[in-house]
Specification:
OB fold (Dihydrolipoamide Acetyltransferase, E2P), 6-stranded mixed barrel, 5-stranded mixed sheet, alpha+beta, Dna-directed Rna Polymerase Ii 140kd Polypeptide, Chain: B, Domain 6, Hypothetical Protein Ta0175, Chain: A, domain 2
Length: 610
């Protein structure tokens, strides 16, 4: 009986086939052993793909890799002796990497690993151990507190909100010319923070403020995700921020020794905007600092050579025209010129940067979020006299609907409220590092602090209605939560249009706020109107207010005709008929007919009497 020959295992280096081995598992084991001994570079990763019977070796740049403690025979190689030597600073992290105690795995090699969460979870088949249980989560999530008590679906949302928060993004912000930047007026360090927050020294770059939050509804105004703000807190500077936007321009050089020039454009230039538009410029054509500007004002006056060669005048003399190429403030924005910088590019051309500053006070529609993915827009800003208050006269900064917590399973938010209150009373920062504490112990610890200061152990307090002065029947849970103001603000998104510019190709309104565009009325909105039977409204939106076009149609051949102004009648090019009918259609449909014709297909339109 002839034995079937065992199929060899192919080996790939950075995606290229370099050979084959008889036993892939043994080969991978050998490579890893040599890597830990330092015979093979620690920069490589090797993985066995069992389904494909392939070994993939990765040595390329740019791989995201994570450090793990090596486990052999069910025991961690990071012994208590090494721990003591590391604490005494006799050895460092790189020493452990060189000795094979710690190794870096990439995404592909992690597929072959069986990683234990803590030393208690070690088993005979465990290959690696997490250095710290919090390292299971990414860097951004480690800036949150108690994330292990939240639904895992909230983690990427939380991560995004932390990135979108306004704060002190750089200490040299006054010297920077970022395209856009947000700067919180009074950023604070969170009362409950994490090990990663302290390690990264983010106390010097805070991104939010500690809000007094009460879990309460308010006359239906904070349904769903909406939040209520206290006007007194807003007036005192709660979540107030600066918005910087930078505008840049340079004197470019063109072929034929032509060049742009910064100056106040003379009235003879093409596209001259009118004397009022340039009234705020200084003699060199550049605006000065601390000048108030609004939409349409010119910030940098610039004259450019014509796009095409000089034209001949009626006298046969060549005349060089120039066009206005000035930089104006974006539509819908206003502010103060914060800073102006003149410099040179590497090509020795003059460059100008102008930074505009505007103050953003929280208003209805602005977005806020806690570090638990609890987002919400401001639905109402209430006078402090109408807000609920405690027996000590404490008025919350923010009212959050209690129904928004159970359905989203963000219980870390509740723990932070309790911890924030306890930390504020004790006047110290508390630790909320992921996986470092047990929920029941936390509640007992924070509850004990609250009881020492005469509060309910679960943070509940009796509140009184500001409108009526009556005591609420039930106690209301309140505490302190670190809230971020996100850069989704009404003042930067508000766009209004009645009439305005249209696209040349489709004759439909332009799109986007900078181009004075309209909001798109899409297919789903159309379906809503069809469902309502609002046919005239549908016609107005999609035809009259969009790209209505009157065209001539030939009843004989069904082709599109044209109006001959010399003969003073409509003509059909296809059959020569001059008895055409005018119909109203969308210009986009006429464009479709032209595109079909370009494919050598002649579409015909059949007319029916009304």
């Amino acid at each position: 009986m002839i034995m079937a020959e065992k199929i060899k295992c192919n080996v790939y280096l950075d995606g290229r086939l370099i050979g084959a081995v008889n036993d892939g598992a043994a080969f991978v084991k050998e490579v890893r052993k040599n890597r830990r001994l330092g015979v093979v570079s620690g920069e490589i990763n090797v993985a066995l793909i069992k389904k494909l019977n392939e070994v993939h070796i990765n040595a390329d740049k740019g791989r995201a890799r994570k450090a793990y403690i090596v486990v052999e025979a069910g025991a961690s190689k990071y012994t208590s002796e090494l721990k003591e030597r590391l604490k005494a600073k006799e050895i460092d992290f790189n020493y452990l990497v060189r000795r094979g105690v710690i190794e870096y795995l990439d995404a592909e090699e992690e597929e072959n690993a069986r990683v234990a969460f803590t030393e208690k979870d070690l088993a005979p088949n465990t290959t690696h151990l997490e250095i710290d249980s919090a390292s299971l989560l990414g860097l951004t999530m480690n800036l949150s507190v108690f994330p292990e008590y939240n639904s895992v679906g909230k983690h990427p949302i939380t991560s995004n909100f932390i990135k979108q928060s306004q704060g002190l993004y750089a200490t040299n912000f006054s010297k920077r010319y970022d395209p856009r930047a947000f700067l919180l007026y009074y950023p604070q360090v969170p009362i409950v923070n994490s090990l990663a927050y302290r390690t990264l020294k983010l106390q010097s770059h805070p991104t939010g403020q500690n809000f007094i939050v009460a879990m309460s509804t308010y006359y239906g105004y904070n349904m769903k995700d909406a939040v209520i703000l206290n006007r007194a807190a807003v007036d005192r500077g709660l979540a107030r921020s600066l918005f910087y936007r930078s505008y840049t321009d340079e004197e470019r050089r063109y072929p034929g020794s032509q060049q742009d020039h910064f100056e106040i454009p003379p009235p003879t230039t093409d596209g001259y905007l009118g004397e009022h538009a340039y009234s705020k410029l200084s003699e060199d054509g550049i605006i000065e600092e601390e000048v108030n500007v609004k939409e349409g004002d010119v910030l940098i006056g610039k004259v450019s050579p014509p796009r095409f060669l000089e034209e001949q005048t009626s006298f046969g003399v060549g005349e060089e025209k120039s066009r206005d190429n000035s930089v104006t403030l974006r539509s819908g924005e206003e502010g103060v010129v914060d800073s102006v910088m003149l410099s040179e590019t590497t090509g020795a051309t003059k460059i100008v940067k102008v930074r505009i500053r505007s103050i953003k006070v929280p208003e209805v529609g602005d977005k806020f979020a806690s570090r638990h993915g609890q987002k919400g827009v401001v639905a109402l800003i209430v006078d402090p006299s109408d807000m609920p208050f405690t027996k000590d006269g404490v008025v919350p900064d923010l009212l959050l609907n209690p129904h928004s917590l159970p359905s989203r399973m963000t219980f870390g938010h509740l723990l932070e409220m309790l911890g924030g209150k306890a930390g504020a009373l004790k006047a110290e920062q508390l630790d909320g590092t992921p996986f470092s504490t047990h929920g029941k112990d936390l509640v007992d610890q924070y509850g004990g602090i609250l009881e020492n200061y005469g509060f309910d152990r679960f943070g509940d307090e009796t509140l009184y209605d500001g409108r009526t002065g009556k005591k609420f029947d039930s106690k209301i849970f309140n505490g302190i939560v670190y809230y971020n103001r996100l850069w989704h603000m009404v003042s930067l998104k508000l766009q209004v249009r009645s009439r305005g510019p249209v696209q040349i190709l489709t004759h439909q309104p332009t799109e986007g706020k900078p181009r004075k565009g309209g909001l798109k009325f899409g297919e789903m909105e159309r379906d809503a109107l069809v469902g309502h039977g609002a046919s005239l409204l549908l016609k107005e939106r999609m035809l009259d207010q969009s790209d209505k076009a009157e065209i001539w149609i030939c009843p004989n051949c069904g082709d599109v005709g044209y109006y001959d102004y010399i003969k003073n009648s409509a003509m059909c090019q296809t059959c020569g008929n001059n008895n055409l009918e005018m119909v109203e259609i969308s210009y986009a449909f006429k464009l479709l007919l032209d595109e079909i014709k370009s494919m050598h297909i002649l579409p015909k339109i059949k007319l029916k009497s009304e």
